[in-house]
Specification:
Strand content: 5-15%
GO molecular function, one term: iron-sulfur cluster binding
Keywords: Iron, Iron-sulfur, Metal-binding, Pyridoxal phosphate, Transferase
Number of strands: 12
Protein name: Cysteine desulfurase
CATH superfamily of the largest domain: Type I PLP-dependent aspartate aminotransferase-like (Major domain)
Mean pLDDT: 95
CATH topology of the largest domain: Aspartate Aminotransferase, domain 2
Radius of gyration: 21 Å
Domain Aminotransferase class V: 3-351
CATH class of the largest domain: Alpha Beta
Largest sheet: 7 strands, mixed
CATH architecture of the largest domain: 3-Layer(aba) Sandwich
Low-confidence stretches: none
Number of helices: 11
Cofactor: pyridoxal 5'-phosphate
Shape: globular
Length: 376
Amino acid sequence: MLYLDHAAGGPVRPEVLDAMAPFLLGRYGNPSSVHTVGEDVSAALEDARRRIAAVLGMRAGDVVFTSGGTEANNLAIAGIALGARGRRPGHVITTAIEHSSVLAVCRYLERMHDYDLDILPVDAHGRVRPADIAAAVRVDTAVISIGYANNEIGTVQDLAAVAAAAGGIPLHVDAVQAAGWLPLSGTGAAALSIAGHKLGAPQGIGALAVRGRLPLEPLLHGGGQERGRRAGTQNVAGAVGLAVALELAEHERADAASRATAARRAFTDRVLATIPGSRLTGDAVDRLPGLASFVFVGTSGEAVLLELERRGIVTSSGSACSAGSTDASHVLTAIGLNEDEARTAVRFSFDRSEPPTPAVLADALGAAVAAVRSAA
């Protein structure tokens, strides 16, 4: 089987498992305990925090461990908005192609806390216009949330221009898809989210790095862990695993991105040249190195996926968080596709270590698309 859905999640790296094992078996103390067993585990947790902060270009005290990217995004947006004392209710800005965890918490603030919400449009490639951000900023804008790279179409935003347009308003960057592929330091973000299962760490661990002087209202209340920003006993094994996975991904990033970019370009060129009615979605150049996404006129994306799986290739039609929904992708309709076109989408996301052979993959895709069309 060839697994090409790494944007949804991938295997845990052996090095990560090795680093986590002691904290699942022998070093099992609670990091909040004041005895020597707890202090030993607490030291490991703080070491993981420092290592993650170094990759993100932030301070160790800025890092808050979470259960994953969804919680990190929720904590960033709601936490910053509700923590903006003296400006509540206020105003939040995001775009029409963000992950559901971003859009849902923004709408929650609008619905339950009377925040005004601006959901900005994007162009046909999925790029937000910095001028639109600058025009939307108000004196009561509490936070702006932008995805570094889109999980469905792979388009990478110009974060330097976005940060400049923000004009000092706290910028939250959802870097869940970008981590391991793109630089994470120097983004201009006041807050940045990552998730372990996109990097070779287990599901259920993530982190939010938020500048220490920025007020952050916790979503979880209790014992005051994570400097009062996220209550609950920490997942020490997960935090250690996340630190190892992030360091490895960052060390390998340049080579992995180069290999994946070459394979993705060759694959894309062959698909567009050999499969009639194929169309690449997202920006052709400014996109994630290992993500290629297409729509195919006259097909069903789900039917193409089934044909590919019969040929030993597993991939997806888009975000795993929307799997099972009958609605057309909000990302694809936001870039101008109609609902029928959006339902023909197929997304390929490569492993960092070994991209697929472009010609073999493109030919298998061509055969799958032809089979679906002939059966229609």
